[in-house]
Design a protein that fits this description.
Blueprint (H helix, E strand, L loop, with lengths): L11 E4 L14 E5 L2 H5 L2 E5 L5 E5 L3 E4 L3 H10 L1
Antiparallel strand pairs: 1-2, 1-5, 2-3, 3-4
Length: 79
Amino acid sequence: MRMARHKPLARYVVCVGNRGYRASLIVRRIYRCLPDATAEDRRMIRIIDESGEDYLYPEPLFVPIELPGAVEKALAAIG
């Protein structure tokens, strides 16, 4: 039986690579991610990208980050 991966759920990630996705992702930019268990099983992450829509991207292109509460609240208010 395969054990499920248990990663902490990050609300935000920073892009550390955009190979193959240069039009959609900007390196060093903070992106909001959405929970998607099926995507995580495939080593993908659901990101709201530059288009304003959510798409799946390879997990290794991002690093989860924790933001101070005030910053997270301000980003959430933007959309």
